[in-house]
Design goal:
alpha/beta; 12 strands; binds NADP nicotinamide-adenine-dinucleotide phosphate; binds glyoxylic acid
Length: 309
């Protein structure tokens, strides 16, 4: 069994060693142009040439949850794409989002600024009931985030493409549900995949529907957010601020206004990092299952090219 590894911005050796150990007898090599066709691929943002030269893959395993970069490529028909299914990311995402929500709700950003100038003062306690948190995307990460927020007694709303029932989450779905979801949300968390349907979805019109003083947390992809619209709504007073982990251009360019905006917190796409060991274990188990005759549809995380996620 031959496995080819083609992952941008990733140190290959530890991954190759991990797959060789998990799949004894397999050949695992870094892809290079002109390499012989492999059985399976492990990928992150490969070039188009990679898929042009690998038409017979039994599976292309993405070492992230989001497949937006892959969906821009021409993938040979019949090559299934499989994304990471949690693999240690959902707990990180829950930590990040709960931290951002609580920092905003408890006004810890203001305390930080005041303590920095040795000022001892108290903020008036705020009511959780007035801070309903709306989670866009009720998938692997969104549901974990929703459950974690519920542990802190925030009212939690969720929005997905298909209708869902999730314990302790007020669920909305589809285009019609989106308006009602936004109108009831005070802290918005974006966790939908970036697709043709969700690109630019956080714009002047949608963000203006949020409750007055709303706060935006984008942990999905930069392409969801229209940057200038966010800034205009914060500066105009309808929004109170934002925590942003993902950007249209990464690294975020030095001149971008997000860096210096006093009401915007920037982190460098770090909310849920790929965990190498858990990812290798998950992908190796899926390769073994396929080798033993399991149908591709039985694997978690198989991407539907029509939906784009
Ligand atoms: P997932 O399990 O596929 O869940 C996606 C959710 O989004 C599903 O509930 C889906 O609805 C919903 N959705 C998709 N398109 C929609 C639409 N047009 N309207 C309404 N809802 C829609 O994905 P995941 O594993 O939770 O990951 C979500 C995203 O997080 C990834 O795609 C990636 O962009 C991002 N991410 C970011 C980081 C980071 O470090 N910043 C790390 C990992 C992932 P259905 O349930 O109806 O299908
Ligand atoms: C990271 O952004 C991922 O999609 O896994």
């Amino acid at each position: 069994m031959n496995i080819t590894f083609c992952c941008a911005h990733t140190k290959a050796e530890p991954w190759l060693d991990g797959f060789r150990e998990a799949l004894p007898g397999s050949t695992v090599e870094v892809w290079s142009a002109g390499a012989a066709p492999a059985d399976y691929a492990v990928v992150w943002s490969p070039p188009q040439q990679f898929f042009d030269e690998q038409p017979a893959l039994k599976g292309a395993f993405n070492i992230g949850a989001g497949v937006d970069a892959l969906m821009k490529l021409r993938i040979p028909p019949g090559v299934p794409v499989v994304r990471l299914d949690d693999a240690g990311m959902s707990v990180q995402m829950a930590e990040y989002v709960c931290h951002a929500v609580i920092r905003h709700f408890r006004e810890f950003d203001i305390y930080e600024a005041e303590v920095a100038v040795s000022k001892w003062s108290f903020r008036k306690p705020r009511s959780r009931a007035e801070f309903p948190v709306g989670v866009m995307g009720l998938g692997v990460l969104g549901q974990r985030v929703a459950a974690a927020l519920g542990q802190f007694d925030f009212p939690v709303l969720g929005w997905s493409r298909s209708p869902k029932t999730v314990a302790d989450v007020q669920c909305f779905s589809g285009d019609d549900g989106f308006r009602d979801f936004l109108a009831a949300t005070r802290v918005l968390v974006c966790l939908v995949p970036l697709t043709a349907e969700t690109e630019d979805i956080l714009n002047r019109e949608t963000l203006a529907r949020l409750l007055p003083g709303a706060y935006v947390i984008n942990v999905a992809r930069g392409g969801h957010l229209v940057d200038d619209d966010l800034i205009a709504l914060i500066d105009g007073g309808h929004l109170s601020g934002a925590t942003l982990d993902v950007f249209r251009v990464e690294p975020l360019p030095a001149a971008h206004p997000f860096w210096a905006h006093p009401k915007i917190t920037v982190t460098p796409h770090t909310s849920a990092r790929t965990q190498r060991e858990e990812s290798i274990a998950q992908i190796a188990a899926k390769i073994l299952a396929l080798q033993q005759g399991a149908p591709i549809a039985s694997l978690a995380g198989v991407v539907d090219p029509k939906k784009g996620y």
